Structures are given as structure tokens and as C-alpha cells.
């Protein structure tokens, strides 16, 4: 699925999560600058860093054109309930070991149109619910040998 397809899927998920006529905004301080938040979803565009002050019950997070240069271990420990995580058109090039630690409910991980040249063999460790993964349109030439170890539920790559 290309970037346009992912953005369409994301839009549909955001609309489904928001509900008709349910304009809801998280409590003050729970939706970071340069982000738009609904009850269950957040879309952040142009943020210089990885935003941190989300509600811990957030289900969907999209990061577009951020200034993040690498995904470090434990980057998402504050949003353990995520089911969908999307990165598109960002400038990071490295994904470290345990970058997605704590995201045991994550089902959809789309890392597309970034500058990723290297991904650690343990970057996806702990994603026991992951069913869909896309690493399309990056700088990856090879993948680590055991990258998919422990991802028994992964059905779409």
C-alpha cells in the first residue's frame, strides 16, 4: 500500500474514531503543538521532535514531516494502547533496538517515504499483535536476518 493509500486509511480511521458530530478535544496539555487530536487519534505534522504529551489511551498516531532523526528505544512507552502508528515523509534514518517497546497492542505499523537506511534486528521486538507492516519507499537495501522473529501475528508486509 502506497503513501496515498495509507493516508486514506488513516483518514478513515480518524473519522471512525471521532464519530459524527463528536468534536472532542483531549484535556489541555494532552494534544501537543502541531498536532490535531480527536478522542482516539492524533495527527502531527511538522513537529521538530517526537511529541510526548498524548493521552495514554490514544489508539492511532500519525507523524508526518517531523524533525525526528532517529527512533530510539522506548520512544512510545507513554502511549501503550496504540493500535496504529504511521510515519510518512520524515527525515529519520535509523530505527534502534526496542524503538516500539511497550506497544503490545499495535496492529498496524506504516513507516513509509522516510530516509531509513538501517533498522536494528530487535527494532520490532515485543510487537506481539502486529498484523501489518510497511517499510515502503525508504533507503533500506537489506533487512536484518531475525527482524521478524517473534512476530507470529504478522500477515502483511
From TrEMBL:
Domain of life, per lineage: Eukaryota
Record GO cellular component, one term: extracellular space
Database matches in PANTHER family: LEUCINE-RICH REPEAT LGI FAMILY MEMBER 4 (PTHR24367:SF268), LEUCINE-RICH REPEAT-CONTAINING PROTEIN (PTHR24367)
Coiled-coil spans in chain: none
Keywords: Leucine-rich repeat, Repeat, Signal
Organism in which the protein naturally occurs: Camelus dromedarius (Dromedary)
Protein name in the entry: Leucine-rich repeat LGI family member 4
Protein's UniProt keywords contain Manganese: no
UniProt signal peptide: 1-23
Key word Repeat present: yes
Amino acid at each position: 500500500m502506497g503513501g496515498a493509500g495509507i493516508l486514506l486509511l488513516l483518514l478513515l480511521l480518524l473519522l471512525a474514531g471521532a464519530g459524527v458530530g463528536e468534536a472532542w478535544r483531549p484535556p489541555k496539555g494532552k494534544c501537543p503543538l502541531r498536532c490535531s487530536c480527536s478522542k482516539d487519534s492524533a495527527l502531527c505534522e511538522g513537529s521538530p521532535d517526537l511529541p510526548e504529551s498524548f493521552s495514554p489511551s490514544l489508539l492511532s498516531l500519525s507523524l508526518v514531516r517531523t524533525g525526528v532523526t532517529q527512533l530510539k528505544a522506548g520512544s512510545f512507552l507513554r502511549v501503550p494502547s496504540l493500535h496504529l502508528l504511521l510515519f510518512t515523509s520524515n527525515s529519520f534514518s535509523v530505527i534502534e533496538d526496542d524503538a516500539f517497546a511497550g506497544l503490545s497492542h499495535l496492529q498496524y505499523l506504516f513507516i513509509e517515504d522516510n530516509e531509513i537506511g538501517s533498522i536494528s534486528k530487535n527494532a520490532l521486538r515485543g510487537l506481539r499483535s502486529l498484523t501489518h507492516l510497511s517499510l515502503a519507499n525508504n533507503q533500506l537495501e537489506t533487512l536484518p536476518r531475525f527482524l521478524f522473529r517473534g512476530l507470529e501475528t504478522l500477515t502483511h508486509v
